[in-house]
Amino acid sequence: MILRSLPIYIFLFLSCNRPSSTIDKSSSPIYSEEQLDSIFESFESIAYERPAQYVSNPDSFFNHLTVQANSPYQKEMYAYGLLFMGYGLLQHGDNFGSVKYYEKAYNYIKANQVPTENINTEIITPLANLYVQINDTQKAIALLQKALSETKDNNEIVRLSNNLANAYLYNADLDSAKTILLQSIKRPSNTLSSALLYNTLATVYEEERNKKESTYYNDLALRNFKQSHLEGDTLLWYIAALGLKGSLEKDSKYVNEAITIAEESFPNDQNRFKAKLTLKKGDILREQHHLNAALAAYDNTLSYFNPEDKAYILDYTYTQALIGKARLYTSQQLLDSALYYYEWAVENDFRTQQLIVSSKDQLRNNILNKETIQNIIDLIQSKAGLSQRKEIVQQLLWCIELSKARLLINEINRSESWNSSSNKTKIGMRTIRDLYHKIDISVDTNEKRRLSERLKKAMIEFELSEKHFEATQFTPQKASFLKHLNKPNSDFYTYFIHNDSSITIIHKSGQEFSFKRNSASTPLSKLLSFKAKYFGDTPNNYNQNPKEYREQAQYLTNELLPDLGSAQRNVFISLDAQLYGFPFDALCDEDFLVKKHNFAYLNSFLLFDFLSKKAREESKISIFYRSEYPSPLPNLQFVNTEVERIYNSFSSQKIGPDKQNDSTIRKQFAQPNIVHIAAHTILDTTAPPIIYLNQAISTNQLRFYEMKTPLVFLSACNTGYGKPLPSEGTESIQRVFLSKNVPSVVSTFWFANDQTMLDLTTSFYKQLDQTRDPICALGEAKRSYLQSAGSVEQNPWYWANINYTGIGNEIGLKKSSNLSYYLWGTAILILLGLQYPFTLWLYKAIKYKNEKTYNKTK
């Protein structure tokens, strides 16, 4: 009996004693196959029967299992242990922990070909539902579509279709959700399945604001549920239908009934589900102005998560409860409390959203988050004097910057974690990059379509193997954020554009913070017309009336850059919406602003927290270039001269079209050199931007490169321009380099003038060599250009398109080696030095010979 139980005691011992980070395998105990069988049986048994032993700290429990499964039986027990951990965490409300362990189970089963009874039921469906709950709907859709394409069983098709419809619903694709639900209803299925389909369809119609159809299908769902035996998940479906009934009728009694059933049937678990119900109750009561009862409902929602003080719970229900409390306090004129909860909600929302992988879901959530920021600004303006309080403006600045560039920050952190990822993930990255490469260079439509289908499947497997939830650690702190805004010789302006086109501006200068909101849309409309007039396809509008330009530019300076007269040399600007692509340094304050200031653009000041400085004592320059192109693209006449100037002055490597294969390009980006690209770029409204070197390289492909470069100089047209992204700037070539943690990017806003680009590029590197600061180097290059430019070339159309984006990092340049010149010079000097004695010797020799000949003939 003692020997038979030994493996269980061993497993429990392993679970109670954390191993050191480095395990000495030579001293590890050796177990028999029977003992290993029992260890993995115990792991599976505890995961299934005793979740209380791990739900508070699942990683600790899991990491104590230090033995490896060898036999098929052990692998099966291990896989089901992971699966049961995912299920146990789900039942106890830990959605993100549940996702992590379901993903572990999925990857392990796939890698080891572990047989399962039904992978759709056991993993795919709960995992997809979890993705929906955490708003990562694109992953859910891809996973379910793949499962549906491989399923033949009718009942399973109905279940998967309902889950897919739910994912479409949360993805705001209501037409797709309706289509698949109405098709599924026609399939023969049991009463419970029909009830579930009806209720999901009712929810779709509710989103469409079609109360009549929503009520009809909700009633059908409730009728079918009541005709069935309900337990477990089916009981949860019925409770959800009751909650929907309460929302439709705006009557909290149905929600109360749902809450009562949930509390009685699931007293110790399903806390997140119950929190959704109490949140629904709070919203109904708040709309009916039962403020105290609503506040109690919101507090009840938060209590299900057991928070301590100002906790961050990675759940949107938690965030919505915080926003609910903020709105209640606003209506009661308790403004400090309202701001406290709004700030907490924005911070929690940021952390939660960073766990979303899909870009479409990120962008959709950005739009939803913007409403919260507008509520905060409206609240601050609702009371006189509130916008003058320094701590309030700091609080607003922090919230605004947290609301921007969330997708970009997520991409930066994902990209960094890929560098230390598993071999499987790295293989997936290579596969995806290669597929994008083939798509970029293919001219065959059918081939592109076939490759895109392969890519879609590869992306699913890659994202599941990525272990995103294990790698993410997003903990930006307000104190650290504000500290980064203490750069010497620097001022900071942040912008937030409202739905009515008014602009909120926060300016930090020294230790002072100021708040301004334009009362109308006039500044933005004037800025857009100014931009279209002077920075379009031609420089002629400025030349016709420079005075008019300067008057309009002065007006925009006054509106957009308050107190600029006292600002420091460097001006950092956090952009928003239509402000992207506008050259602030071409505005005027008596003269062009660039005469006094260097401008650096950012998607959010939070990038100071997330981008790496990558300081370099001496950097070489890797120059990618192409000057000749097939029609209709024009040849780039200045490129060869530009390349030679850089090459002759600094330590550089010229990489022309004949050397631009995929391997060489990737190798150069993976080195800590400056990357200079002189080539055409191609912008398309439907496809990602492309750098056109020897072959096309899309931004999709670049996202899967390894990059260590401290600076990218994009000496090409429109590299800072692209499709607008909500709260993210533009889908530009410049942005993709930021997403790869490149701290400094020089790019262009519109078509580059050949000669001006050549002059500014050459001057930039000379200034960078002197200052070691790319922000200052670009500003000095422009000032040097303007100092010598004629009246026509002073036109900002020529020089203002080149801009700097980044956080500022120190970069030294390695000079071009002059050893060969020194050798030749030394040789010439030696020859010159030897010339006189050789000539003297030769003269004496000839003279002596002549004298000797003369004496003989004498």
Automatic annotation (TrEMBL):
Its name, as the record gives it, is: CHAT domain-containing protein
Q: Where are the TPR repeats?
A: 121-154
Indicate the segments forming the CHAT domain, all copies.
554-804
Question: What organism does this protein naturally occur in?
Answer: Sphingobacterium yanglingense
One Pfam match: CHAT
Query: What PANTHER family does the record tag this protein with?
Result: RAPSYN-RELATED, TETRATRICOPEPTIDE REPEAT PROTEIN 28
Keywords, A to Z, come to: Membrane, TPR repeat, Transmembrane, Transmembrane helix
List the coiled-coil residues: none
Q: Does the keyword Glycoprotein apply?
A: no
TM helices/strands, residue ranges: 821-843
